[in-house]
Amino acid sequence: MDCDVVIIGGGIVGLATGWQLLQRRPGTRLTVIEKEPAVARHQTGHNSGVMHSGLYYRPGSLRAKLCREGSEQLIAFCRQEGVPYDQCGKIVVATREEEHPRLEELHRRGIGNGLSGLRWLGPEEIKEFEPHCVGTRALLVPQAGIVGFRAVAEKYADKIRAAGGEILLGARVEAIRGGASGGVEVATASETRRCGVLVACGGLQSDRLARQTEPDLPLRILPFRGEYYVLLPEARRLVRNLIYPVPDPAFPFLGVHFTRMIDNDIEAGPNAVFALDREA
Q1: CA distance 159 to 34
Q2: I want to staple 59 with a disulfide (CB 3.0 to 4.6 A). Which of 49, 112, 133, 172 is the partner?
């Protein structure tokens, strides 16, 4: 074998997986294969950069557990490695009284998931946190924050290399097949790597990669597009931190929200600070 483990995908999931593996099994011969010329060029570097607190998920669910633990581990990592982040908090704002029961359910879920410092805000108190925001009631969530996930991923890549791992950039995987003497062969345009274990972390392409070894795979990734609009410099005074709507049960997404960025990860220009993020 050329290596013990090959990970396809140099986004935050693939890089975090590689770094954790090298931590737990030092000396593992590990290679990360990424089709782009740099890491974190897809979903990792094109998102709102929010560190979610675990407010939305059903208490006791695996998703709630992973969100809370992941947020705590991410903050600890950023502190240790000097990655900029800001636990600035957010407000979830109701604009109509019929939204209040759903906002109260979020409060119950937040308490059930161990969040502290949750606070109810009336119409005037909302303006103390977001002077240009109008609502009938809001929930302040102090644990929410922002980070540049591309910077986190780049730090993971540095740590993989320091631990002896390899990251191949500009190498698109063209075929995956079983090796003649066991293991897995991963072919790019320029070479073939033979490994004992293959992990596919290809984001929206992960199911396509998996079907190269499981043609009848009963799973399919269904992508949804998110759109971002960047506030002009003269309009940035309108938003201080993070403003979210009460989720609409008719749509399984967070809706339109304002997000302060820690840096320019959205690549909307050198002055990008705030983004109007529509998850749809």
Answers
A1: 16
A2: 112
- In whole angstroms, give the CA distance from residue 25 to residue 14: 16
CATH number of the structural domain 50-147+224-279: 3.30.9
Phi then psi for residue 248, to 5 deg, are -95, 120
Q: What is the pLDDT of residues 40-55, one digit of tens each?
A: 999 999 888 999 999 9
Q: Where in the chain is the domain with CATH 3.30.9?
A: 50-147+224-279
Helical H segments across the chain, by residue range = 12-24, 62-81, 100-112, 123-129, 149-162, 206-210
pLDDT in tens, 101-140: 999 999 999 999 999 999 999 999 999 999 999 999 999 9
**Closest among 147, 49, 52 to 92, alpha carbons compared:** 52
Q: Where exactly does CATH 3.50.50.60 map onto the chain? A: 3-44+150-210
Cβ atoms of 104 and 110 closer than 8 Å: no
3-44+150-210 CATH = 3.50.50.60
